[in-house]
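Illustration 12: DUF3109 family protein.
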Amino acid sequence: MIQIDDTIISLDVFKEKFLCNLDACKGECCIEGDAGAPLEEEEVEQLKKVLPVIWEDLSSEAQAVIEKQGVCYKDEDGDLVTSIVNGKDCVFTCYDEKGCCYCAIEKAYRERKVDFYKPVSCHLYPIRVQKYSEFKAVNYHRWSVCKAAVLLGEKEDMPIYKFLKEPLVRKFGEDWYTELEIAAEEMKNRGII
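Figure caption equivalent — predicted structure in token form:
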């Protein structure tokens, strides 16, 4: 592990390879799981703000869940997460004509309809950030639904930290990411990674 500011970063973030392969997985990470995507407090209002823009892209089942319980709930650990449909699917999913799952929020962002990209935990995946009293742990979350992403990442030699540059900068800032790159280069020179 290495430390940058108040973050402790697992070596897996540097060593492991990952590159999303939507053609293979069809966005399965948005529709599988036992809870919604982790949320930061300030993201709840942003979700409510974009909701009218993306409403028609959501399934009728998702609309019903949102009308009943809202855009989020607290999971069994007491963490704030996006609401889910059928006990597993994120309410913010939508599908293209090929059956590939997408984030309706990200779709609206890319179409310049909203200024919120999507929850940062989704943008950071497969990295998960766990907050502790004195630091944040930055870890690689392994999940079988991402096997195709691991294989493509290995083929293209894409370390997780490089694949996730944009969301890491979004979460921690440019200076933090520059320090991360310096640490990666130093570990590479020492044969650690």
